[in-house]
Amino acid sequence: MIYSDDKHSAENPFFVNPKDPAYVLDSGTPCCLLKEEYWMREVYLQLKRSRERQEKGQKSEESESAQNSPEKTVENVPFSSKSPGNLEVILCASTYCPSCRTMVYDEEIMAGWKVDDQNLNTVCPHCSGNSGGTTDAVAATDIANQDGVFAPRLKIRMQWIQEMRNSWYQPGGLQESRNSSPEKSPTPQETCLEVAFVSPLVLRRELETILTSDKDAMKNESIRTTHPVVFWNLVYYLRRLSLPSHLFSWISERHHIRCVFDIPTQHDESRIPLYFYNPNHDGNPVFGAYNQKLQRKLEDGKDSNGMASWRIVTDSVNKNLLFKAVQTLVNSSRLVKNGSVHVGAHFPIFRDIQFASIDVFGRALLRDSLDTQYDTESNKLPPKIKEILPLQDHPLSQVTRACRKVFMPLDLF
To answer: Coiled coil located at which positions (predicted)?
Structure first.
């Protein structure tokens, strides 16, 4: 059973004991470890007092400036509380492996970290398996130079939005003040940042170093600029763990911080994900120039296979016929050259099915069932086909699945 309208379906073959604290977050229940209302009550009171003082000061400044000059230009501050709506903050850790040019996603990055890591590197699951294992005698510099070893990056996208997206992550902060008038200037454009994505052990070590030199460092808002790697990684893990924090209020007093699998605009045109072909995404600015490019290809008849594959895959998942979905994507990337069969450059088959299914079915998708059934159905492929499939099309390892299940689920984009 892969897809079901019944959220409490007992047919899910990957049963997780809800009493097991290791997987309680995978249910997607927000604030199930610590209630935000209890933890953030004092923080919100301080924010309200600060906002009231700011509004009183702004009114007095506006009255003075009105007397001195007939017009006043309002500076367009990206995180200004006077901007309408909420500040949407998107955190995405997916990173291209520089060796095989395949996108490596959050749980795969985490599975590549080692307990004794002293650097920021992870191991790509798609190309590192092609080389022999390393020994403890190998120098760290040699390991860093090996194929499939790279330093992942955490991408941050911030933009003011009027309407909330459907998300596993709840918006937070204060409600919009009734006394404040929205800025007349245009809404600020998207702000993009990027920092190193580090393991929890490395993050803990860095945080301990900061607190050793300054025990009050986490009380100072300047940590966002003085230690951006620590700040943004803390925000990422706190959101994935659904834990409240005063750090969020330093980004904006009204925020919607979401952790996502994918940022559509970061993909290579030669490996476009299948979910891009969803007709509901036509005109969605999140996809940037890809919308127009795909539309032109479809109109010219150059990419009709992509749309057909999307329809077959989503329909197959809806009817619990996963083997048909796998077979469709294998055939779409299969090439015959000089009498031999091989596969061309393509987006990972499992991720294509997973993302297209999340995009269409949302929370009705039985995510654990998709993992186990993909493992089963991909083994039914003919041996000659299985031999030519790259590692990116293999089922996720048990460690990778566990790295995903100990956190809150990710939004798609």
So the answer is: none
